[in-house]
Amino acid sequence: MNDKGPMDQPVSLMSRLADWIAMPEQMHGTSITEVELAAIFGVSRTPLREALNFASAIGLLRRERNRSIQIPPLSGEDMLQLSLTREALEALVTFQTASRIVAGEVSIEGLEKLNQRMNALAAIGDTGVLLGTGLDFHEFIRVHSGNHVAAGLLRQLMLRMERYRQCIRTLEGRSSHIVHEHDGILDAIRNGDPEGAAKAAREHVANARESYRVELAKHGLF
């Protein structure tokens, strides 16, 4: 018997659904049916419904009584709530991981390698892969925080945040800022300063929030 949920596979149907919802075409919201989605993903409706139930539970979409699926438009209020919640949780897990690194319980090597890769990608202008590596940087911090509750909440939250992250994917200058901000988090950890690392993580999320706000305003969504 397979008791795995929609988030248990590295490239799951849930991840594919979240990526589809995050596409710019869905920025202003859309309505679609299960049959249409099943055709898009090339799956039967049974596994699709499992993914849809999970997506509905975390607020990515709404399932209507007429069996239609509503993808809500992006909104300033939604973005603010998600981002402020993320800021608090990222600061928490960053403080905890930094504390564990300082105590010698966790090696900093993996984080160093990810940061080096981000700097190399920034140098060649590969924004897409850089942003993905940035997610890996934060996932390393979550995994090694020892706080499975916060890590799980952040993973769910980031599925919803991805819609806003895609808004600034091509924003000029943001990639270099991301690398600089990650450097700041890592520098604080190297210096044995968990509180400084948590502060840098807060500032990093707050800077992203301002970029989201500016981009949403351009589309009349803030």
From TrEMBL:
Coiled coil: none annotated. InterPro entries: GntR_C, TF_FadR/GntR_C, Tscrpt_reg_HTH_GntR, WH-like_DNA-bd_sf, WH_DNA-bd_sf. Residues 81-207 form the GntR C-terminal domain. It comes from the Bacteria. SMART domains: FCD (SM00895). Keywords: DNA-binding, Transcription, Transcription regulation. It holds the Pfam family FCD. GO terms for molecular function: DNA binding; DNA-binding transcription factor activity. PANTHER family: GLUCONATE OPERON TRANSCRIPTIONAL REPRESSOR (PTHR43537:SF24), TRANSCRIPTIONAL REGULATOR, GNTR FAMILY (PTHR43537). This is GntR C-terminal domain-containing protein. It comes from Lysobacter concretionis Ko07 = DSM 16239. The lineage of its organism: Bacteria, Pseudomonadati, Pseudomonadota, Gammaproteobacteria, Lysobacterales.
